[in-house]
Each structure stands twice: as C-alpha cells, then as structure tokens.
Amino acid sequence: MTFSWSSSTKPIVGLAPMADMTDSPFCRIVKSLASPIVWREMVSAEAVVRENKKTLNMAEIHINERPLIQQIFGADPATMAEAAKIIVEQNSPEGIDINMGCPVYKITSNFNGAALMKDSALAEKIVKAVKAVVTVPVSVKMRAGWSNPEECIEFAKIIEAAGADLISIHGRTKIQAYTGLANRDVVRKAKKAVSIPVLYNGDITSADDFFSAIEETKCDGALIGRGALGNPWIFRDIEDKINGRAIQTVSMQERIEIINKHLDLHILHYGLQSIPTFRKHLAWYFKGIPGIKQFKQELMTANDRTALEKIFEQLS
Ligand SMILES: Cc1cc2nc3c(=O)[nH]c(=O)nc-3n(C[C@H](O)[C@H](O)[C@H](O)COP(=O)(O)O)c2cc1C
User: Fold this and answer.
1) Which structural domains are found in the chain, ordered by start?
2) Which pLDDT tens digit goes with each residue over 64-85?
3) Would you call 200 helix, strand, or coil by DSSP?
4) E strands, 154-302, where?
C-alpha cells in the first residue's frame, strides 16, 4: 500500500532528522523498540546528483527502518528535484522531506536550510519542482522563522499552496538556534492556518511532553530529536501511553543490551574501526546515569569492543 500522511495513524510520532545521529543503525534501534516514522539525517542534493558514493550510501534503507522519510538539503530547484528522483528510484523511501530549518552557517551561507525561509518564492519553486518528479509524499521541515517566530504562519501557507503534503515546525527561530524554549504557540497558529498535517518539534524529552505538545498546538503529531538520543525508549513510552499501558522503567541491563545491539549494527555498517564514531551515542546513553562519572574517561577513550564490554560489565 502506498504511504500517505492523511492515512497515517494519529498522532504521528516521528524521529526528527539529525545529522550524524539518525543513520541506519540508530533508526533500526529505534524501530526495534517501537514504530515511529523515522526521518533520516539530511543528505546534500548536489552530492546525490554528482553520484557521490558516500552520500548515496547514506540514503540506503534497511527494511526494518520503514516507514522512513529521507531528508534532502539544497537551494537549486532542479538539483533538488533530480536528487529526490534519484533517491526515490534507488531506495523508495516512504517520503521526501526538504530541509528549510537548518541554522548552521555552512548550510545557510549557501542559501540552504533555514535561509530558504527568507526567500519564499525560491522555497515554493523547490517544493513544486520536487513534487513534479516524485509520487511519494513531499514534506518540509522549517523553523518558527528566521528572526521573527511568527514567520512560519505565512510561510506554512506558501509551502502548502506549493503542494507540500506535510509540514514540521521546530518552534525556534534560526537566530535562536538551540537557545531558549521552543515556541508552541506559533506552531499552534501555523497549524491552524493550513489544512495539511503539521508536526510540532522542539524540546520533547518524555512521553508527557509529547502529549502536552500535541494538546497545546493541536498538531497532528510531533518529531522528537535530542529527546531520543540515548533514549530510544521514548517512543515505546509514547506507544505504551497511547495503548493505556504503564510506562516501563529501563534497567541498566536493558540499557546495555540496547547499546550492545546498537554497537553491533554500527560496526556492521561502518566497520571495525568505527568505535570512535559511536562515542557520541555512548555519551547520550549514559548522560545523567548515577555513578557514571568515574567511567566517563574510559568510555570516551575505549577503542575496541573488549574494552567497552569490560566497562559495561562493571556498570551492570
Ligand atoms: C546533532 C543534530 C543534528 C541535526 N540535524 C538535522 C538535520 O539533518 N535536518 C534537520 O532538519 N534538522 C536537524 N536537526 C534539528 C532537529 O531535527 C530538531 O529540529 C531540533 O533538534 C529540535 O528538536 P528537539 O528539541 O526534539 O531536539 C539536528 C539537531 C541536532 C541536535
């Protein structure tokens, strides 16, 4: 059956795209615990069109990750359309998402990401160009605005009129980057201004946050970013609440089982030498865990699996 946002179960629960974090191994870990829709980390449309091997590999999909939305970034409508077409032909993601929210200088200085919120005519052209070449749903992830948080209200209307099937809004401006709190009120207003589904995004770190965000914004669902790092169980918690089940506590044994499973997938995906690139996940998995301080140095310098397993043994 073809994937569509209108027929997706509500509230829509999604893993937000995060560069270097929401890769295939992490998405598979999330999916081993619950069934959110996962947004893969962004890939450069230009690199896809140039057939850059590393980028094309990044967009490959394992069956266990579906439904999966692949995000692309770029600023040239024809290149964005060509990249979307290539990705859909090669990997058949359930949807294509366009990044109009990234605040990082490297991205915005090329007029990609959040910079597109300053040029709605160009943003509109990109959505139309991508929509014209793919049959899967096309969504846009945006910020509340570039500098004014109310900008997303008009921008969302333009994106809807251009043909987007869904919008996600991170309730902070580009200027705010990650400071302050995400503004739920402007996301509520933007949701009210359009008819397509809207997902709220920002600062959800528990199942309770998820439901309060939906309640306050009246959105069709929400994307969870940093709240899922080191805590893929957040999606199980949300599903438990939806199904009237009690939330399960994560024991140290279960934490270590999932870390080991994640590490297996990471090594299989990136090779035996990839433990240093797993450290960012370890830091999240053990953030705030009582008694972790004394192991931190060892955890962050371990270069092989045996060394890591020794630390895990001491922790469990
Ligand atoms: C490490 C990291 C990488 C990110 N990469 C992307 C990305 O590739 N595409 C994107 O649209 N947003 C990206 N974001 C933004 C998140 O998707 C999300 O909008 C933001 O973190 C706010 O949500 P949260 O409070 O739930 O984390 C990234 C955020 C982080 C922390």
Assistant:
1) 12-242 (3.20.20.70), 252-315 (1.10.1200)
2) 999 999 999 999 999 999 999 9
3) strand
4) 166-173, 198-201, 221-224
Task: Render pLDDT for 68-127 as a digit per residue (tens, 0 to 9).
Answer: 999 999 999 999 999 999 999 999 999 999 999 999 999 999 989 999 999 999 999 999
Residue (of 195, 162, 194, 225) closest to 14 by Cα position: 225
Our answer on whether the CB atom of 202 is closer than 6 Å to any ligand 1 atom is: yes
Q: How far is CA 126 from CA 16, 19, 41, in A?
A: 21, 21, 19
Record the pTM.
Answer: 0.98
Q: How many CB atoms lie within 10 A of CB 274?
A: 14
CA angle, residues 299, 303, 305, in degrees to nearest 5: 85
Distance from CA of residue 212 to its chain's centroid? 20
pLDDT digits (tens, 9 = 90+) for 155-177: 999 999 999 999 999 999 999 99
Residue 47 predicted with pLDDT over 80: yes
Q: Is the CB of 226 under 6 A from ligand 1?
A: yes
Residues labelled catalytic: 102
**One-letter amino acid for residue 240 of the chain:** D
How many other CB atoms sit within 10 Å of the CB of residue 121?
7
8 lines ligand 1 (CB under 6 A): no
- In degrees, rounded to 5, the angle at the alpha carbon of residue 43 between the alpha carbons of residues 37 and 46 is 145
Give 169 Cα–ligand 1 centroid separation in angstroms: 11
Residue 309: count of CB within 10 angstroms of its CB:
14
In degrees, rounded to 5, the angle at the alpha carbon of residue 188 between the alpha carbons of residues 184 and 189 is: 120
- Report whether residue 72 contacts ligand 1, using a CB cutoff of 6 Å: no
Ligand 1 centre to CA of 73 (Å) is 13
Nearest residue (by CA) to ligand 1, atom 18, is 225
Give kind and range of the element (H or E) at residue 69.
Answer: strand 68-73
Distance, CA of 81 to chain centre: 21
